Amino acid sequence: MAEVNITINGQQITAQAGQTILQAARAAGIDIPVLCEHPALATWGACRVCLVEIKYQRALQPACTFPISDGLEIWTESERVVKARKFVLELLFSERNHFCMYCQMSGDCELQDLAYRYEMDHWTFNRSYEPMGLDATRKYFIMEPNRCILCRRCVRACADIAANHTLGLKERGANSMIIADHDVPFGESSCVECGTCLQVCPTGALMDRKAAYGYRDKDDVVSTRSTCTQCSVGCAVDVITKDNRVLRVDGAWDAEPSNGLLCVDGRFKPLYDIPERIEQPMIRRDGKLEEADWTEALSLVAGKLKGTPSAGVAASATTNEALKAFADLFAKVDGKAGRLEACLPDLGYRKHATLQDVQEADFIIVAGVDPLEQNRVVGYFAKRALDHGGRLAIIGDSANGMNGYATLIVNDDDAGEVIELAQKAERAVVLYGADLTPAAVESLKPLAYTALFLGLDGTRNGSGALAAGLDPIEPQKAEVLYLLAGDINQGEAFDAHLNGAFTVVQASQKSALLEKADVVLPSPVWSEQEGHITNLEGKQLALNAAAQMPAGVRGEAEVLNTLAAML
Ligand code: SF4
Ligand code: SF4
Ligand code: SF4
Ligand code: FES
């Protein structure tokens, strides 16, 4: 890319042609305040807080939209700029109820930060707003319209990132306000509670229920980059903690696979669905599980595994390292190990699709799965493709969250027209799942060399299990049964495998499964896991522990490797 020489506040800068003043300044470490601009969103140029002075330009110009050119001389904090910026802020503060000291977001608000930065210690203009009703109809976050500055970050985030188009604006001037759909309560709208709008909102207009008055980002919170493990998309997350407590989960704008977009399962549910933890090894004595220490529990398990016919069944809700250690352990014992969950049917296709391929597709086939339920972010990426002219066809006549977006819905055994259209497309992508019927499998085969395929298998880390050599396993006749349950409430998922054998359960949370266990080995929950998963695109993604495990808990791979060493 061609280089451009500009001067900002007297400092010579070499920037890239095509950048805006704001982008060039940011790259050089020069801070220009913004409110409507957000790096993950298309530029809007509405709030005027980023105004800068440019030599030979009669009026001040918004840095977020003004393109740089060779020789440009810019001042970002001149007397004229500061005066204009204060005026913009004074107007914003006069429009709504910005009594920051009474706001839940006090200390964590981009508008308040600017008020401090430009020493706004009084209101210049009379404040004549009409109070507006707060909307608390959504489960995880609240809309407080009186704090809204109409920057429209939320509207753009909902449309361009989540591809959900729930938000819009009603009225004009001082009465303008953000609305959902045709001005229905947010909780009754088409909102899918992905929380993207919440993450981009610069003020206290959108408030996380868990965050209100709880903490401030300026305090000593810790942000840990990790991977969401709630489904096999593996969205990159920043887990925000304080004193070993998880406060919230943010999408990571700068990291694949989803570049900041999360779903309700990844952003909110792990903070609300708090499992009952297993915090200490347990051994069944006289019919009752009793706490034990690790040495005793591991010796008992190793002793049982040694030379005894054994079977191992792993759920995939754990790390690649644990799954590999599980397979390695069973390579040392007299027995067989496999995975709990079924695999997707083999369609003989040539190439995996990535999420990027999904959003760039001009024709998408959905078959045997509802992406909006099972791997929601894949569904949102598919909706982005539709926003850019792509078309969607669904094979299968059962209820599917994507039915309303489809131009064609056909039966499993009548997919000829869909296949023909996909063959004519330039970038066809097939999203398929475990509910594919044999007829649909046959129908899709002609696309094996022309379309890209993304399998949505409904597991957490099924690809990691396959890579570890763990294939689906039938119930075995064995004297020792080892169940690797992972971080999920397994309930009755393993029931088909239970055979009255001596049963070892390695799990993070209590469930009905413990009633069948003879030994229980506690493992970490999602926020404590270390290692990697392999997502549905086949990428290895890192899990970093954002919180410390309780003292009695040990990492799954560590425990399995210790057992292997004891054998
Ligand atoms: S939570 Fe997601 S879907 Fe709902 S309004 Fe916000 S961005 Fe749109
Ligand atoms: S709700 Fe937040 S993001 Fe949306 S317009 Fe208001 S201040 Fe901006
Ligand atoms: S799509 Fe899956 S990985 Fe992404 S946030 Fe939702 S649950 Fe987590
Ligand atoms: S940040 Fe540039 S106009 Fe709002």
Strand order of the largest sheet: 14-13-24-23-22-15-16
The major pleated sheet works out as: 7 strands, mixed
What integer is the average pLDDT? 95
Helices, by number, come to: 16
Q: In percent, how much strand structure appears in the residues? A: 15-25%
Radius of gyration: 27 Å
Number of strand segments: 26
Oligomer: single chain
* Poorly predicted parts: none
| Bound molecule kinds, no repeats | iron/sulfur cluster, FE2/S2 (inorganic) cluster
Report the helical percentage. Answer: 10-25%
What would you call the shape? globular
* C-alpha termini separation: 59 Å
Q: Structural class of the helix and strand makeup?
A: alpha/beta
Describe this structure in words.
The structure is a single chain. With 567 residues, this protein is of the alpha/beta class. It has 16 helices and 26 strands. A seven-stranded mixed sheet has the order 14-13-24-23-22-15-16. Helix 8 packs across helix 16 (556-566) and helix 9 runs parallel beside helix 16. The longest helix has 17 residues, at 79-95. It starts with a strand and ends with a helix. The structure holds iron/sulfur cluster (SF4) (3 copies) and FE2/S2 (inorganic) cluster (FES). Residues 148-154, 178, 201-203, 205-206 line the site of one iron/sulfur cluster (SF4). One iron/sulfur cluster binds next to helix 6 and helix 12.
